[in-house]
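I am going through a labmate's work and have reached the protein record below. What it holds is a sequence and that sequence's fold in token form. Please read both lines and tell me whether the tokens look consistent with the sequence. Do not assume that whoever made the record got everything right. Thanks in advance; the entry in question is below.
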Amino acid sequence: MSEQTALLRVENLSLKRQSAARAEIEEFSFTLAQGGTLTLLGEAGCGKEAVLRFLAGASERDESGSAFVKLRDGPKRAITQRESAGLRTTFLPGPHAPSLNAQASTLSQLSLVVARKLRQPQSSAETEIELALKRLPGAPALEALDRPPAQLSSETLAAALLAAALAQAPELLLADDPLSALSPSQARRFASAIQAEQKRSGFALLYAAGNAESAALLGSNLIVLRNGRMVEEGPISRLATTQSHAYTQALFHATAASNKATAARSGPRGEPLLQVQNLRLPSQAKSRDSLTFELRRAASLALLGEQGSGRHALARALIGLDKPASGRIVFDQVDIGILSDTMMSRLRRRVAFITGQDDALDPRMTIFDTVEEPLRAHISMPREQVARNRDAALKRVGLAALPGNRAVAGLSRFDLRRLQIARAIVGAPHLAVIDEPLRGLDGFAQSVLRDLLHSFRANERPAFLVITSDFALAQAFCDDVFVFKDGRVVERGAISAVLRAPQDSHTKKLIDAVAAVPPSGLPPEPVEG
């Protein structure tokens, strides 16, 4: 890269927390071109988040650090952790990042941020956000953002955050993996929108990614970080097929594993667990469409579609949370349509829920109480046996080393997902409802979660009802699939047959969105022995 095309050069960036044994990032150097994109790839804690904080001038109070920075053709100068790099820098968080008040208006919060950055009235900031939204294909109207973040879909919130970032006219956009919280097709659209805005306004993008799909969608240069140090760099086009470092190979293998058929059959299917006859959801009340199917014990079904497609409405009806417009649902040989709320609540105890929502567990409860609750509430069991089952489940998911009296609120996203699986294991459910369990996790964490879910299914043998927008995830866990669009099932069948010869155009679109990183050409996995 020539000196004339460089927007930013950073040399010997180091950042360390006072209480940490090692540096978060150490002697890290890179160059970012005007209008260029650089992706920092690595698992949580690799140092990529520290780089973003440093360049944004937002390092934590207990962090100390420094770097040499050179802007364009200017002189090289030293900066510390609370200084600006000298560029108009904007931070773009992921939709699940706790950057907004969950109860206040999204528009009000974002317009206030933009107004302060531009030193303009809040009304002018709203106008700038609206102009940015209009440039984003499929983005919501400004009025749709006048609701709390918790009431917005991931795609709408992602568009809102991107519009607010673009409204600040950045020279450097620092993105903390916003693509990871989106479905494959949404991520493709979002990446294209970022690239179009880059071409229009010329800002540089520094993107922190937990998996290789994001880098592939952005078509960027890549730096792989581990334990605060760079281990490999190069264009994604090369690193997707040829990696020299073992850690880079492991990262790409974790990505490839999520994009290939790994569905673990849990032995022969048993008797029917769910029997559905002529079911119509409230959105289908005036339609001739109805659903008739059964889900046998130890079998698996994917409800696949984008947000708002109707997949959650069917899942809620199947477990008695919502009443269908018409039809009959039999769960474990009981017609749930004739049950009282009390009886339905007891029947629902046979269902486990594992979701990608960070607030799925009570943050006030401890780790031990969270896992023990299904045993205490639903099974008459001696206290010693409860403790043994709890400890065994925590050991299986890799959380046995954590203090049992630690509050759920202090756990990482990865640990929260594993805790949900431990809670499901001890409950011995007949049915596991699994809703986007890998969303927002880095590649390694996704690989661990997949293995744990496969183990859960193989050992406890529950039926799986998987809600997702990702055909790769559905393929990994499910035998059959229903594809949803606009409240209707547009295609159904064995997932292998649907993937091989999809009949509906919407199904083809969802399949095409998967496998951003080509699984072919990856180096072979190491053979033990």
